[in-house]
Write a structure and sequence with these properties.
Helix content: under 10%
Structural class: mainly beta
Strand content: 25-35%
Order of helices and strands: EEHEEEEEE
Number of domains: 2
Largest sheet: 3 strands, antiparallel
Distance between the termini: 23 Å
Number of strands: 8
Radius of gyration: 20 Å
Length: 143
């Protein structure tokens, strides 16, 4: 449904029959239920309150009502090398990337690991050896 469709916010809240739409999202968003069986979802909506917009969750395969189900590092340790632990969806490509300078305008993020679908919900990557100079890590997903 287009953003400015007349069907958006076009029903009476009393007429809603279920608390969620067919995708499991709340039926009332922004105060009024939409016509039809789906609630319109803007890319900035964060239905489960985990800080990730719905479109980003769909890409990461973490779209659902549980705010604990997201793409995120859960632990980073530096004993005998670096060990990164993260959680994420099972049907998206996951990339662990690093760089040494967050404010640099020339340094790019470099993929150091690619996790291809189907992936476990919890993942661990061990980078053996002595700790290197300061590194920044991120996890990114694509479909």
């Amino acid at each position: 449904m287009p953003h400015r469709s007349g069907c958006g916010r076009g029903e009476l809240n009393e007429a809603k029959r279920a608390p969620v739409d067919l995708d499991g999202h709340p039926r009332i968003v922004f105060g009024t239920v939409d016509m039809g069986c789906y609630e319109w979802v803007a890319s900035t909506n964060d239905y489960d309150g985990d800080g990730m917009a719905k479109d980003a969750e769909e890409i990461a395969d973490t779209d659902g009502p549980d705010p604990a189900f997201l793409l995120a590092f859960t632990a980073i340790s530096d004993t005998n090398g670096i060990t990164l632990t993260w959680i994420g969806g099972t049907q998206a490509w996951q990339y662990v990337e690093c760089r040494s300078n967050l404010v640099s305008t020339t340094e790019q993020w470099v993929a150091i690991y690619t996790n291809t679908p189907a992936t476990p919900v919890t993942n661990v990557l061990s980078l053996p050896g002595p700790p290197m100079t300061a590194r920044l890590y991120r996890i990114r997903a694509e479909r």
